[in-house]
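Researcher: We're teaching a course module on how sequence relates to structure. For the next exercise, students receive a sequence and then see the predicted structure as tokens, so they can try to spot secondary structure elements on their own. Here is the exercise chain.
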Amino acid sequence: IVIITVMKTTNVIINNIGDSFFSLLVDESRDISTKEKMIVALCYVDEKGHVIDCFLGIEHVTNTTTLSLKAAIEDLFSRHGLSMFRLRGQGYDGASNMRREFNGLKMLIMNENECAFYVHCFVHQL
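Model: And here is the predicted structure for the students to work with:
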């Protein structure tokens, strides 16, 4: 029942986004079993002009290198029919693997889509 609910909810989110632009919020963490996880949220504007923030999922990643995280994001986008070219924003914590100017995750994505501007996550600035 839980898996079906997750699938249906995810499908609603993806259908609501449709061909709209969206932003990506990612944080990575190690759980109690020391497995690396990547938490993914999306932000988009619905047809009524409301800003919608939604949790998309938790992805297992083998490590938190920039290439591993980028591959996990590309895989997630592929599974859900999301296009990197519709991405208009990206937000992460201040970890160096995320924000480095030349080889951080933000630059790997901006090299592919220069419209996907990076914003340091406000919550991580407190």
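Model: If you want an answer key for the exercise: Residues 2-17 form the longest helix (16 residues). The chain has a mean pLDDT of 84.
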